[in-house]
Amino acid sequence: MNFDQWIAPEQYNISSEIERHKSDKLALRLLDDQGHTTSITYNDLLKQVNQLAGGLNELGLAKGDRVLVMVPRTIEAYMIYVACLKLGLVIIPSSEMLRAKDLSYRLQHSEARAVIAWAEGAAEVDNITEELPALQFRIDASGGGQTDGWITLGSLMEGQPEEREAEATHRDDMAILAYTSGTTGNPKGVVHSHGWGYAHLRITAAWLGIQSSDLVWATAAPGWQKWIWTPFLSVLGSGATGLIYNGSFSAERYLRIIQENQVQVMCCTPTEYRIMAKTDGLSGYDLSSIRSAVSAGEPLNQAVIKQFEELFGFIIRDGYGQTENTLLIGNLKDSPIKIGSMGKSIVPGLVEIIDDEGRPQPMGEVGSIAVHTDMPALFKSYYKDPERKGANIVGSYFITGDRASKDEEGYLWFEGRGDDIIISSGYTIGPFEVEEALLRHPSVKECAAVASPDEIRGHVVKAFIVLRDGVSGSPELVKELQDHVKSVTAPYKYPRKIEFINELPKTNSGKIRRIELRQREAFLNS
């Protein structure tokens, strides 16, 4: 099949998609928990981008250098990302919830030369005890006082010109190095090129339905690939105005923000929609401004979709993609929708349901979701692991690891993950990461982490734990183990459920049979 319309010009820099909207139009509107509002135009944002790019370059950073970025939902996050891309630097998106252990691996594996972080993240970086020979520059983006050994963002920008040409980058040059959780071992480094950004914008346009006159609220936080997808690239690349809410989640607060700001396009996680659907007095809110609402991360319950449609007249449309690609399957705006379906392949032939030999499955038969390897938005490789991508390719398709079936009209129906990855509230969690943290606790002998069905979060992490001899399980120990995991790794990975057992189910070769535990959880919660 022909993907020519998604292939970027040979010389291409993602930042050009934002540069072309340079004007006095509002680019971003930031709200905080206290109700304060800060706004910035495209003109002013790009002036700051150029000043920061100049400062980073003067510091000694140049095309191809890796930079770990860990910042909250702020205007500065957008400025930093555009500046790095414009300079040809490679961004390592990192969640604020990562701890020293998580950051140490990413910094060592990527050989990052710089880290840009908010004060809290800077403290975690300073807690790293391992050697970081490649790391030369530590930049504090929070605007506070000078942290020992850290350079402030403001000092870098001071005196730099407000105009600057973008670095000449090839469409195949690395732009993003995103780390994603795996079922075993450390996170994988997913390499995306500048050309990926070009393809992403053109592929997702028909799903999001963003117009340049829109106010768009996409709730994903920086540090996740979904933030790059929508709040960052799709909003600024469309010339629209992005709404940023830098505050804690509250269903009532979210609904008021939509109502008071007249949001036109909404992109939330299924968990956020589920909790909003349970809000007392939901029908009393005015959400008539919304004309496009989408959900991604995991399938959204049919009951929730129907509730919003009945109360407010819009349908929340599911979309499916991965860190390794972009939107692959979706319910497109103004197209017929089957409630409960993932939607259709974005274009015919892009996605297929195949068996283990790579043959298309008959209608209604469950198989692996596979994406055509010629797709321009498919990742380039796993960083420093060139053979790993090939191991997931069968024929002309890359196997995503998820399973689904396809009906006679081409709609796809999600069946579940083909591996042990846990998706909770849109977060992707590898069981190995949870298990490794638990095993650091002196009371734990063996453990296994699996997905357990949850009405609100879709799934939560459940840990089955074999305790060391002489240790007894108790509610106090459960709380202690949960707090321990939060202190060792990103808090969203902690097991919300813990069950103490005498032994774990294993194969003859001694491998833990997580599938058996997962099936048990599904049965008990059905």
Topology record:
Elements: H1 16-19, E1 26-32, E2 37-41, H2 42-59, E3 66-70, H3 75-86, E4 90-93, H4 100-110, E5 114-117, H5 119-126, E6 137-140, E7 151-152, H6 153-157, E8 174-180, E9 188-193, H7 194-208, E10 215-218, H8 225-236, E11 241-246, H9 251-261, E12 265-268, H10 270-277, E13 292-296, H11 302-312, E14 316-321, E15 327-330, E16 344-345, E17 351-354, E18 367-372, E19 381-382, H12 386-391, E20 393-394, E21 397-406, E22 412-417, E23 422-424, E24 427-429, H13 431-439, E25 444-454, E26 458-467, H14 475-488, E27 497-500, H15 514-524
Helix pairs in contact: 2-3, 9-10
Characterize the structure shown.
The chain has 526 residues and is of the alpha/beta class. Among the domains are: 8-31 and 39-247, ANL, N-terminal domain (Rossmann fold); 422-524, 2-Layer Sandwich (GMP Synthetase, Chain A, domain 3), CATH 3.30.300.30. The chain contains 15 helices and 27 strands. The strands form 6 sheets. A 9-stranded mixed beta sheet has the order 2-1-11-10-12-13-14-15-16. It has a 5-stranded parallel beta sheet with strand order 4-3-5-6-7, sandwiched between helices. Strands 17, 18, 20, 21 and 22 form a 5-stranded antiparallel beta sheet that branches. A hairpin with a 3-residue loop joins strand 25 and strand 26. Helix 2 crosses helix 3 (75-86) and helix 9 packs across helix 10. The longest helix has 18 residues, at 42-59. It is globular.
